[in-house]
Amino acid sequence: MAKKTKGNKVLVTLKCSECGTRNYYRFKNRQKKYKLDSSKYCPKCRKHTEHKESK
Ligand SMILES: [Zn+2]
User: Which of 30, 41, 42, 52 could be disulfide-bonded to 16 (CB atoms 3.0-4.6 Å)?
Assistant: First the structure.
């Protein structure tokens, strides 16, 4: 069962910086200020690329 998100958590999308495909979804604590940018595998580029958070 899927529960609704409560106030302090935000769903962010991790987007490939090379092709722009949204490959990953993450829950992030709104109060903490950190970036989720990381190197992830992109199925479209077929390699690891830099993924940046977008809304
Ligand atoms: Zn890509």
Answer: 42
